[in-house]
Amino acid sequence: MTERGRTMELIHKLQSFLNEASEEEAQILSNAVDSLQKKRETPYASYISSLMNMEYSLHKNETLSITIPITPFLHNTLGMVHGGLTATLMDTAMGALANITLADDEAAVTSEMKVNYTSPGVGKALRCDASIVHKGRRSIVTEARVYGDHEELIALSTGTFFVVKQ
């Protein structure tokens, strides 16, 4: 199939979907398109970080925070943030923090991660705070905590990142 054919097929699928979409489904699709556009404009963002609308901030105490809005896109069947997406938030925060501590010719990749969930992810937003517990030449151990709207602990995690040469 040609590129034009794929484009026309996608347009047809979107039109068919939107003809029967609920307001919530239409909003999720609109947010997804906005996120994909944002990904184009932010070369270091991943698709998942764009789709989750991650906002990063690095603090003077060497903590990295990522905030995400809670939207229906993130919900599991019980109406709370899917645990796997909470884990993705923590892995992203810990990995980003590990990577910014490294030389330009090095990268950190997740080698182990443990997650404990303590409360349901509900409300308007989640904030993940990541910090480094130990930094060695070959591995970095990190910790992350996810908080809800009222500073309630949603989940906590430890992660080990293996340092590789690029």
Automatic annotation (TrEMBL):
The UniProt entry, under InterPro entries, shows: ACOT13, HotDog_dom_sf, PAAI_dom, Thioestr_dom
| KW Hydrolase (keyword) present | yes
A single GO molecular function term of this UniProt record: fatty acyl-CoA hydrolase activity
Q: Pfam families of this UniProt entry? A: 4HBT
Q: Does the keyword Hydrolase apply?
A: yes
Domain Thioesterase positions: 79-153
**Which terms are listed as keywords in the entry?**
Hydrolase
Family as reported in the entry's similarity comment: Belongs to the thioesterase PaaI family.
UniProt-recorded name of the protein = Thioesterase domain-containing protein
Q: Which organism is it from?
A: Fictibacillus macauensis ZFHKF-1
